[in-house]
Amino acid sequence: MSQTAAQVATCDPVWTRIREEAEKIAGAEPVLASFLHATILNHHSFEQSLSFHLAQKLESADVNAMSIRQVFDEVFEKEPEVGSAIRADLSAVLERDPATQTYVEPFLYYKGFHAIQSYRIGHWLWQNNRRLLARYIQNRISELFAIDIHPAAYLGRGIFMDHGTSIVIGETAVVEDDVSMLHEVTLGGTGKQGGDRHPKIRKGVLIGAGAKILGNIEVGECARIGAGSVVLQDVPSNCTAAGVPAKIVGCAGAEQPAHEMNHLLDSEGSGI
Asked: What confidence tens digit (pLDDT) does each residue in 95-110 have?
């Protein structure tokens, strides 16, 4: 490895691994070689590659890819923490999804990952009073990925949306670091009232498929929400809530349920 390559590997191991994987795949699958070069191998950084890739997806007849990419690049330059959060999200997919073997897979193809990263750009725009453009990105995320995240909502780092389809996250929702959720999860309100009205999901929570968490309630750190549950009251840390309406059915079954991804509610899974 040359000195330059070694320096890159030390400074950005995620980007180095993505490039190594892309080179290997391009050699083994010539049909994808041109796509991999255009999307990954022709770029000098993780951020440049991602902005190019997502801009191609988010463009429309109203806003072209070049303009969208300029917005992404502006955010990456002004807010470096966004790039750090994206790397944490990508690593979360590889660590928690047994169907994923490479960084390249979610980087190129996983709509849950794409939706979160597009949201991160929209969130920055919203915070900087560029709200109509933030709404454009929210709309395109919904159209393309079937995931609706209000740009004012707060998402931490290391967020994993498995499958992603039909996830809805409301305006005043908070999702802290290292949370995992599956498809059809809703973090919503309970009516048409304004103000702070959406759930607060603390660190390390695992939310099962189809769960609906409604209202300005708190799901404590490292708690677990069973699939199909309707949660209307606070859930204590390190507990499992399940049912309609949800009730506490035991402990979370693991110190880090969002990493373990264990959804079983039997004696082994829930600790009861």
From this structure: 999 999 999 999 999 9
